[in-house]
Amino acid sequence: MGSEANVIVADGLRKYYGKTHAVDGISLAVRHGEIFGMLGPNGAGKSTTIEMLEGLRTPDAGSVEILGLRQPRDATAIKRRIGIQLQTTALYPRLSVTEILDLFHTFYRGHPTLPTDDLIRLVDLDEKRETRSKQLSGGQKQRLSVALALVNDPEIVFLDEPTTGLDPQARRQLWDVIRALRGRGKTILLTTHYLEEAEQLCDRVAIVDHGKIIEQGAPSELIQRYFQEIAIQFQDGHGGSDAYTRLPGVAHAAAEDGLVTVYSADVPRTMAALLERETSGEGKLRDLSVRSATLEDVFLKLTGRALRD
Ligand SMILES: Nc1ncnc2c1ncn2[C@@H]1O[C@H](COP(=O)(O)OP(=O)(O)OP(=O)(O)O)[C@@H](O)[C@H]1O
Ligand SMILES: [Mg+2]
Questions:
Q1: CATH topology of domain 6-223
Q2: pTM of the entire structure?
Q3: Could you tell me the distance, in angstroms and rounded to a whole number, from the CA of residue 44 to the centre of ligand 1?
Q4: Can you give the C-alpha Rg of the chain in angstroms?
Q5: Which residues lie closer than 8 Å to 129 by C-beta, 6 or more apart?
Q6: What is the per-residue pLDDT for 308?
Q7: CATH class as words, domain 228-292
Q8: What pLDDT, in 10s, does the model give residues 127-166?
Q9: HSE on the CB side for 43, CA within 13 Å?
Q10: Domain residue spans of the chain
């Protein structure tokens, strides 16, 4: 690894806490100018990994290269060129948006920074510039914490679950901010447990579970790799998926909490068989929907579990 297009290269990262293998051999390479997502459930090891990349935690094993520099040897030089948003950020509650950004500028005296006005515009907080941070909404606070990660005009921006807890509209607004950063030539590495976010926002994703990357690639590539079929979904109180795998056209079926997902390579034939079962009273087809596969289906197939928000 270490090709010049890769701005983040991690090789064999491990971090153990007693018996907990928080990170258990993670290797990844992030390319210049992309939005790279680490997708995984609570406790998968996302924060531990991102913090080892940032230089905030020391790995038990493995190496990290950022912009061709090594952690921890070049930590000071790296810190100047990256922006960090932590999963929880303490904002000064009584200071206004402008005051907080100005304060952060003083931390980088003598180094190039982005003007407060530009940052405010970039994260779309013009109307709130004089508002105290404690009076901002959840989404506005998140956007302010992204702005704080950008004060030193970093080449790489690390965002740890930037949209967790936001409503769909605020989440989309933050996606626009992140896309705008990519438009300015930044590289973004973010963590998320929202499948839709990984699918819509990220150029490439690594699916993380139990401290390991179980699959990675562009979302559309991953979906294609695992599903050439169409998903037919419905509620059937009867449970198990076995009865469905034998129906015509069905490649694979899964059932969880009465929600059955049947992956069909021949939707008309599978539908005909499903309708026949319902007519004869063998099965139910409540809340029927037919859709293309998503990253959620990939996660379910790989882990046997649903990744719920
Ligand atoms: N300082 C620590 N001491 C002990 N255990 C830790 C420590 N930090 C993390 N862990 C454990 O390591 C595992 C991975 O934690 P981590 O915070 O990296 O997960 P995550 O993917 O970021 O989860 P979340 O989505 O909830 O933020 C968890 O089991 C956690 O309890
Ligand atoms: Mg975390």
A1: Rossmann fold (3.40.50)
A2: 0.85
A3: 7
A4: 23
A5: 96, 97, 98, 120
A6: 66
A7: alpha beta
A8: 999 999 999 998 899 999 999 999 999 999 999 999 988 8
A9: 4
A10: 6-223, 228-292
